[in-house]
Structure formats: C-alpha cells, structure tokens
Automatic annotation (TrEMBL):
<feature type="transmembrane region" description="Helical">
    <location>
        <begin position="127"/>
        <end position="148"/>
    </location>
</feature>
<feature type="transmembrane region" description="Helical">
    <location>
        <begin position="253"/>
        <end position="270"/>
    </location>
</feature>
<keyword id="KW-0046">Antibiotic resistance</keyword>
<keyword id="KW-0812">Transmembrane</keyword>
<feature type="domain" description="Major facilitator superfamily (MFS) profile">
    <location>
        <begin position="33"/>
        <end position="515"/>
    </location>
</feature>
<feature type="transmembrane region" description="Helical">
    <location>
        <begin position="160"/>
        <end position="179"/>
    </location>
</feature>
<dbReference type="InterPro" id="IPR011701">
    <property type="entry name" value="MFS"/>
</dbReference>
<feature type="transmembrane region" description="Helical">
    <location>
        <begin position="320"/>
        <end position="340"/>
    </location>
</feature>
<feature type="transmembrane region" description="Helical">
    <location>
        <begin position="31"/>
        <end position="54"/>
    </location>
</feature>
<feature type="transmembrane region" description="Helical">
    <location>
        <begin position="221"/>
        <end position="241"/>
    </location>
</feature>
<feature type="transmembrane region" description="Helical">
    <location>
        <begin position="185"/>
        <end position="209"/>
    </location>
</feature>
<feature type="transmembrane region" description="Helical">
    <location>
        <begin position="74"/>
        <end position="93"/>
    </location>
</feature>
<dbReference type="InterPro" id="IPR004638">
    <property type="entry name" value="EmrB-like"/>
</dbReference>
<protein>
    <submittedName>
        <fullName>MFS transporter</fullName>
    </submittedName>
</protein>
<feature type="transmembrane region" description="Helical">
    <location>
        <begin position="491"/>
        <end position="511"/>
    </location>
</feature>
<keyword id="KW-0813">Transport</keyword>
<feature type="transmembrane region" description="Helical">
    <location>
        <begin position="102"/>
        <end position="121"/>
    </location>
</feature>
Length: 532
C-alpha cells in the first residue's frame, strides 16, 4: 500500500512526512473518542467470542442447525477470510474517503449481517451471513486503530493502543458469559441478534464524538491483489478443512492446497511489481516489522485453534452449560485486562524483545499445560491456565502492535492497522483450519473400532448425538467419544505449543531490545541532537 508520490520509506523510523499536530479540540476529547472506538471494536470481537460457546448448540440438530464440524469451521472462517482479504482495501478507502465514514459504513453492514445471521435456517445461510459480517468488520477494525494513531500524540499512543488491546480481553470476558446467558434463555440466534443494539449505540456515539481524518495522498486501489489474496486463502483453507474431514492423501485435498499456495505465490509476485499494492511486501524487509507481525499471526494461529475445541471440551466432555463455560473462560480475559495496559511500562523497563519473548514462552507453557487435562481435571487448575494464557497474550499483542504502528508515519496509519489485523485474522483462520482438521483426523482415528456408524465419527458432538438417538445401543459410545476427544485435544494443543514456541524464537532473534521510535519521536531526537 505504498504511495509513489511520497518519498518516505515506510517501515524506516524517522523517514516520511512529519505528522501534523492534533487539533486541540480533538485532543481534549481524545479519551472519550477512545471509549467510542473501543465500543465499535467490542462488537466485532464480541461476536467471535460469543460464537465460541454457541458452536456446540449450533451443531445440535434439535436446538440448532445440525452443523457438522467442517461447517462450524467455515462459519468461523467465512468471517475471518473475508475480513482479512478486505482489510487493506478498507484501509486505503478509509485513507482516501475518511476513516469515520468508512467506520460508520462498516458498523451498519455488520449490524444488518448480524440480524441475518440470527435468522439463518441452515448452516449454508449462516456461513453466507457470517461472510457479510466479515465484510462489515473489515471497515471497522482498521479505522479504529487509524483514528487512535491520529488522535493521540506519539508519547501517549502506546498507552492508548494498550487499552485498545485490552478491550479485546474485555470482549473475550463479556462474550462467552453473554453468549452463555443468552443460550440459557433464548434460541441460538440471540448470540448474533445482541450485536444489533450495540451497533445502534455505537453509530450514534460515533456521529457525535469521533472526528474524521484522511490521508492527503492516499494510495490507489488494487482489486487484482485483493482477489488473488482471497482466492489463495480460501483455496488453501478449504483444502486444509477438507483434509481433516476426509483424508490428507486425497488428490482433491492435495490439489486444492497446492492451488492455494500457488495463487498466494502469484499474489506476492504481483504485489512486488505493483506501484499501488494491496499489501506492500517491501515492508517485510524491515526486521522489526516482520518479527512483530509474525508474533501476532502465530499467537492467533495457536489461540484460535485451541478456542475452537475448548467449547466442546467444557460442554461435551465435562458437561457444563454454555453460561458455566463462559464463566470458566473469564480468567483468560482477566489476564489480558490486567496486563495489556501495563505492557507499555514493562517494555520501557525491560525492552520489547524481553517482554514479547516472555509472553510467547508463557503462551507456549499454557498450551503444554493442556496436555495434562482430562475428564476429571480440577477446574480451578484449568482457570489458572486460562489466566496465564491471557497474561502471555497481553505481553505479546500490544508491544507487537505498537512496533508495527511506530514504523509508519501517522498519515499511513491505515497501512499498519491493516497489516496487524490481516495477520491476526489470517493466523486465526489458518489456526481454526489446521488445528481443527488435526482435531477431526485424530478423533476419527481414535473412535474407530467402537461401533460408531459412518458420519457419526466426524466429531464428538456427532457421536453423542447419534448415541442419544440410538437408545441402549448407543450408550457404549459415550465414554469412548470423550476419551477420543481428549486424545485429539492433546494432539491439537501440542501443535499449538509448537507454533507458539516458534513465535518465541522469532521475537527473541528479530525483535529489537528497545521499542521502535515513531517518526515524530525520531524527529524530536534529531532536533535535540542538533541543539547539542
């Protein structure tokens, strides 16, 4: 998303157009504006966290839509893939036409699509409505971070981004509990319908409070790059999910994944030669930029895959209600809420490399701790693991996000925002696809030989559903299903731990010891040096 008219070198601190001074009237309202932006962020993140406790109910043929595990994966990934694929275009459109306008548009689309999701009559309709929700969310997420970068001066921006990141933890806290409470009293569609009043309140507050801003020299649109990225990701993810559903050795599965990789290769080749790329791959020549985005992607790859199966573990294996499941996940959010705002101070004291490496190691340790979980593990131990998982994430996400944003001038805030959110969504989508497919494959192998009929061996929910309808003959399938799921869960958490460990190595060797200076800070340092 480079600007050929700008001689600045994006990604190199101290280069580019110095940021304009924030309007004093806007500056006085900056914390209130941050509150409004967090509300819009909450509704986007809230939706996925609510869905985590609802997927078991949606899979139930009596209470929900009877969705298979692969359809549930697509209900999640149809949202994230459209979201990720459009983020760069949304960022450019916000830079060109005004970030507030695009934020309002995205919220309106998200609200309408939430209503459609709540009214879905089949898994296919839900998948389609979720894709539209992803379309709306793509215009919301980058706009919030871009506006923060324009409203806050460089010295306050890390704190504001820390609070912004902490809001993700708040959504993780509110989502499962809200979803569980709704499912206790209403039908499954209520977990989407709840978004509508929040969207209405958010749009009203934005109109009254949030200032508009745009890039005086916005980049050009790159529809070819956007289409190539979406086509490549969808093909790759489809092949991965299909592999878990059928067989990894299937020619269709191998061919689809290779096609996806090939299309993504063409995408990178095209973007390197474009003078207005959707994704400026030259940004990744900057070591800090690459390490920070890799950390974000790897954390969400591991976390989203684990979150996908945790609802089944807590509800299908342990027998807890959706509301109880939400309460058990609360420590994860508390860990993020407590430590995300403090991450900036830790970075100043110990350095960005030490803090992010420690965070990745904590996340790795929590995944390894899940290997000890079985059908009788005390829940207070599980809650402790969830808490430290939140702590680990809070030590990675804010410093990594700020490292990306600090490497770009304020006018290009949409670029940094789009990069961080795209990597987060792509990492999450691949995590659900890869780790969800590992879960399916191992479960199917483990349950074989227990007399479970074909079709009922795809997931624990399918097996338990078949057992409930089979009468006395199905009673012997319940315990083997739980044991098989726990074995599959251990394989999945081991994969998550390996991914998080790779992230720890990446940030240790490639993240700088000190936080990157923003262009404004670098300019101030240069002026101080000149005075001496």
């Amino acid at each position: 998303m480079s600007d050929p008219n700008n001689a600045a070198a994006p990604g190199i601190p101290g280069r580019g157009t110095p940021p304009a001074t924030v309007d004093p009237h806007i500056h006085r309202r900056r914390w209130a504006i941050l509150g409004v932006l967090i509300l819009s962020l909450l509704v986007v993140v809230l939706d996925n966290s609510i869905l985590n406790v609802a997927i078991k109910v949606i899979a139930d043929p009596d209470q929900g839509l009877g969705a298979s595990q692969s359809q549930l994966q697509w209900a999640i990934n149809s949202y994230t893939l459209v979201f990720a694929g459009l983020l760069f275009t949304a960022g450019i459109l916000g830079d060109r036409y005004g970030r507030k306008k695009l934020l309002l548009f995205g919220m309106a689309v998200f609200g309408v699509a939430s209503l459609l999701s709540s009214m879905a009559q089949s898994p296919g309709q839900l998948i389609a409505a979720r894709a539209v929700m992803g379309f709306g969310a793509a215009f919301v997420m980058p706009a919030t971070l871009s506006i923060i970068s324009n409203v806050f001066e460089p010295h306050e921006r890390p704190k504001a981004i820390g609070i912004w990141s902490g809001a993700v933890g708040l959504a993780i806290a509110i989502g499962p509990i809200t979803g569980g409470a709704l499912l206790e009293h209403f039908w499954w569609g209520s977990v989407f319908l709840i978004n509508v009043p929040i969207v209405v309140v958010g749009i009203t507050a934005m109109i009254l409070m949030v200032p508009d801003s745009k890039d005086p020299r916005p980049g050009k649109l790159d529809p070819v790059g956007v289409l190539l990225s979406i086509a490549g990701l969808v093909s790759l993810v489809y092949g991965i999910i299909k592999g878990g559903e059928d067989s990894w050795s299937s020619p269709q599965v191998i061919g689809t994944m290779l096609l996806g990789v090939a299309i993504l290769g063409v995408f990178v080749w095209f973007e390197k030669r474009s003078d207005h790329p959707a994704l400026d791959v030259r940004l990744f020549r900057e070591r800090t930029f690459s390490a920070a985005t890799a950390a974000i992607g790897l954390v969400f790859f591991a976390l989203m895959g684990v979150t996908f199966f945790m609802a089944f573990y807590l509800q299908s294996v342990r027998g807890y209600t959706p509301l109880e499941t939400g309460l058990f996940l609360l420590p994860l959010a508390i860990g993020q809420l407590l430590f995300a705002p403090r991450s900036a101070g830790l970075v100043r004291k110990y350095g960005v490399r030490a803090v992010t490496t420690a965070g990745m190691l904590v996340v790795t340790g929590t995944f390894l701790a899940f290997l000890a979980a079985d059908a009788d593990t005390p829940m207070w131990l599980m809650c402790g693991v969830f808490f430290f998982q939140g702590v680990g994430m809070s030590l990675v996400m804010p410093p990594a996000t700020n490292s990306v944003m600090a490497s770009l001038p304020r006018e290009k805030a949409g670029v940094g925002s789009a990069v961080t959110n795209t990597v987060r969504q792509v990492g999450g989508a691949l995590g659900v696809a890869v780790l969800g497919s590992v879960l399916s494959s191992v479960y199917r192998d483990q349950i074989a030989g227990n007399g479970v009929p074909k079709g009922a061996d795809e997931s624990i929910e399918a097996t338990l559903g078949a057992a409930a309808h089979a009468g006395p003959a199905g009673s012997g399938w319940v315990e083997p299903a739980k044991d098989s799921f726990i074995t599959a869960m251990h394989a999945t958490t081991l994969g998550s731990a390996a991914v998080a460990a790779i992230g720890a190595v990446v940030v240790f060797f490639w993240m700088p010891r000190k936080p990157a200076a923003t262009p404004a800070e670098a300019g101030e340092q240069a002026r101080e040096t000149a005075k001496v």
